[in-house]
Design goal:
With about 450 residues, this protein is an alpha/beta fold. It contains 15 helices and 14 strands. The chain has a seven-stranded mixed β-sheet, with helices on both faces. It has a four-stranded mixed β-sheet with strand order 1-2-3-13. Strands 11-12-14 form a three-stranded antiparallel β-sheet. The protein is globular, with a radius of gyration of 22 Å. It binds pyridoxal-5'-phosphate.
């Protein structure tokens, strides 16, 4: 249930706006007129400060693959906290996690840890520049990769800024320097011919091509294999590095998206689920490329520090989370995701509401459109679609389901068919409201 104006959530928000601009530290948790404040979580449920309980389909924006307070993760983290939370020395924990991740990801020989996906993407782009000696990067229109200036170019261009044909580089934040825009080549997602010709055009200056194989903000539709193969071929041809942002897609399979698609990038960025619920990021790749970080022969090509990088609490919780996430767990998550997508798609048809659920594995996104969704532009919501999305989201909340306001859902291993049935039933009832509202 969305809390009423007499609720503790509302009172906390009134207090928050005095000390936090807009009342919070993350635009993503902003909710109008006020957000729901969390009190605690357990398994796949969250309790708010007013005692309401929700099935959590946000999972901290996909980062909690085992839900909340999983006993094995609590044990791993608290054991380490008692031994010390961070040292000015390396610990064995980062070797353990690096070995596990490298053993799972086909294109990763070595890794470096960081504290967020933003930082991982920033270091990957800097690594591409350091390795190639070139200044520019290419990224897909509408794809989110965190807050590094270069990575957030053309994240949300409005139709009036789309340009005639090929995407143009558009600032996301006010104050983005023109030089940043000049050093970013924006390519369309899932259009191999256009992407290849732009990459060739800037070939001699291009250090890296950054791509998320299933970009959430650009529709959460999987990349066509032909698209990723074209990016792999053209980056080999021009000498740019291919960088897969797997901060979210590492959720899709035991060997990541690179394993699912069977394509080896030169660099991979990770974050979210691999930290076991703690802040985390990582950059991995071929040893030859990762050598830019190597300090054994004097100042490295790319110095990389970070006071909390590879802190042992995150490393130990991350290792426990990854050990729990075996191939059987992925199989279960795929089945849960399939059941929710199928159930919601049936409900769309039943109520005659245009739209569908897309996604793969434990991730899904609701679109209120029958257009073929292939990229940012085809996923771009009309005013009517946004209104329907808002009615639907509120309907889910009132029925005890937490999902991102823009239609993203991420499932977790503690869920069973009881929860997926409850999610589908809530979606069905909410779609009836959407149909009634027109
Ligand atoms: C694909 C992708 N890359 C990078 C990031 C940035 O990660 P973080 O929020 O940990 O900085 C995100 C965050 O949602 C993401 O979805």
């Amino acid at each position: 249930m969305y809390p009423d104006p007499q609720s503790r959530s509302k009172a906390l928000y009134d207090r928050a706006v005095a000390s936090l601009p807009g009342g919070n530290s993350r635009t993503t948790v902003f909710m109008s007129p006020y957000p729901i404040y969390a009190a605690r979580g357990e398994g796949c449920r969250v309790w708010d400060v007013d005692g309401n309980v929700f099935i959590d389909c946000i999972n901290n924006f996909t980062s909690l693959i085992h839900g909340h307070a999983h006993p094995r993760l609590v044990e791993a983290a608290t054991r380490q906290i008692a031994l010390g939370t961070a040292f000015g020395l390396p610990t064995e924990s980062e070797i353990d996690l690096a070995e596990l991740l490298a053993s799972r990801l086909p294109a990763v020989d070595q890794l470096r840890f960081a504290n967020s996906g933003t930082e991982a993407v920033m270091m990957a782009l800097k690594a591409a520049r350091a390795f190639t000696g070139r200044p520019k990067i290419a990224k897909c229109e509408g794809a989110y990769h965190g807050a590094y200036d270069y990575a957030e170019v053309s994240l949300d261009p409005t139709p009036d800024a789309w340009g005639r044909n090929a995407p143009v580089s558009v600032a996301y934040a006010k104050g983005t320097p023109e030089n940043v825009l000049a050093d970013v080549v924006t390519i369309p997602f899932n259009d191999p011919d256009a992407a290849v010709s732009l990459i060739r055009e800037h070939g001699a200056e291009l250090a890296g091509v950054l791509v998320d194989p299933m970009p959430n903000r650009a529709g959460l539709v999987p990349a066509d294999r032909a698209y990723l193969e074209a990016l792999r071929a053209v980056t080999r041809e021009t000498g740019a590095l291919l960088i897969f942002d797997e901060v979210i897609t590492f959720r899709l399979g035991y060997h990541g998206a690179q394993g699912l698609w069977g394509i080896d990038p030169d660099l991979t960025t990770l974050g979210k689920i691999m930290g076991g619920g703690f802040p985390v990021g990582a950059i991995g790749g071929r040893a030859e490329v990762m050598a830019v970080f190597d300090p054994r022969h004097g100042k490295p090509a790319l110095p990389h520090g970070g006071t909390f990088s590879a802190n042992p609490v995150t490393m130990r919780a991350g290792l426990a989370a990854m050990e729990l996430l075996d191939e059987a767990a992925f199989k279960r998550l795929d089945a849960l995701g399939g059941a929710v997508r199928d159930g919601i798609n049936t409900a769309f048809r039943k109520h005659g509401v245009p739209g569908r659920a897309v996604g793969l594995g434990s991730l899904l996104k609701i679109h209120f459109s029958e257009r073929e969704i292939r990229d940012y532009r085809s996923a771009y919501v009309t005013a009517q679609e946004a209104r329907r999305q808002a009615v639907f989201s509120r309907g889910l909340l009132d029925r005890g389901i937490l999902a991102a306001g823009y239609g993203l859902m991420a499932l977790s291993t503690p869920m069973t068919s009881a929860e997926t049935d409850a999610i589908v039933a809530a979606a069905d009832a909410s779609l009836a409201e959407v149909a009634a509202a027109g």
